[in-house]
Design a protein that fits this description.
Layout (H helix, E strand, L loop, with lengths): L4 H5 L32 E5 L2 E4 H16 L1 H6 L4 H23 L7 H14 L3 H11 L17 H20 L8 H10 L8 H30 L3 E3 L23
Antiparallel strand pairs: 1-2, 1-3
Helix pairs in contact: 2-4, 4-7, 5-7
Length: 259
């Protein structure tokens, strides 16, 4: 799923200071203490499943790799808003994964891991680059201490990639496949956008239909996750509490805006 639920639900990635940027000290968010710990810190818990700070940091650097590139992923600073945004996406994914298990849907195999891993390897094209990023992000130190071949994914990364594919497939079948934009809805949006329309209705209609479908998908998925969240006990460590309730995803764009 890549940027995954963060992108679909509209949780924006906060501004990221690159390694050689000099942020304004008065305006930047204070950076959390990410120094090594003898005992890992639990930043959130979904029922009995704990999410640790080390896991959150590793996945946040994976998000940066996918969205900002290798240099920022390895050397960029991680501020609290960014960590909280990624933590929210992890919890959303955990909730959906638990629902998949409850429904006893098919687990994914090695071929699904290979699809996700190929996307990471495109960003880390050499074994040396792959291993260096795994070390910098902290993936090397998480999960069972078992030998692995150079270039193969550490356990935590393999688990993330499998779950992303599993959740994406579930969302495709459970949500996306059932989204329909009627001609009446399309016509209403076209009429509301008439004063902003610099192209013919026929030309604007396909793009507008896609925009409406994305807005509907986001609303349906938000409602689905809200329902899952109500059935789970979700707890946060201090400073990792989200600014808004989980899955409170009011659209932040005009669904009738002409792309």
């Amino acid at each position: 799923m890549g940027w995954g639920l963060l992108g679909l639900l509209g949780a924006t990635c906060p501004s990221i200071a690159s390694a050689d940027a000099v942020p304004n000290e008065a305006s930047r968010s204070p950076e959390p203490d990410l120094s090594p710990r003898l005992v890992d810190m639990v930043v959130a818990q979904v029922d009995e499943t704990a999410i640790t700070l080390s896991e959150l940091v590793a996945e946040t650097r994976l998000v940066l790799l996918r969205t900002q590139g290798l240099r920022v992923a390895e050397r960029g600073s991680l501020d609290q808003p960014l960590l909280n945004a990624v933590l929210s996406a992890i919890i959303q994914r955990e909730l959906i994964q638990r629902e998949i298990k409850r429904l006893q849907l098919r687990e994914l195999g090695d071929e699904d891991l290979a699809v996700g891993l190929s996307g990471v390897r495109r960003l880390l094209p050499t074994v040396e680059a792959f291993e260096h990023f795994m070390d910098v992000a902290g993936f090397q130190n998480l999960g069972p201490d078992a030998p692995r071949a150079p270039g193969s994914p550490p356990p935590l990364l393999a688990n993330i990639l499998r779950i992303e594919r599993l959740v994406d497939r579930f969302v495709e079948v459970r949500i996306r496949a059932n989204i329909v934009v009627s001609d009446a809805e399309l016509r209403q949006c076209l009429e509301l956008s008439q004063d902003r329309l610099d192209k013919s209705w026929k030309t604007a209609a396909p793009a507008l239909r896609r925009t409406l479908a994305r807005a509907k998908e986001r609303a349906e998925l938000g409602s689905f996750i809200r329902d899952l969240a109500r059935r789970a006990e979700i707890r946060y460590a201090p400073s990792f509490e989200p600014e808004r309730h989980l899955a409170d995803f009011a659209p932040d764009e005009d669904p009738c805006e002409i792309p």
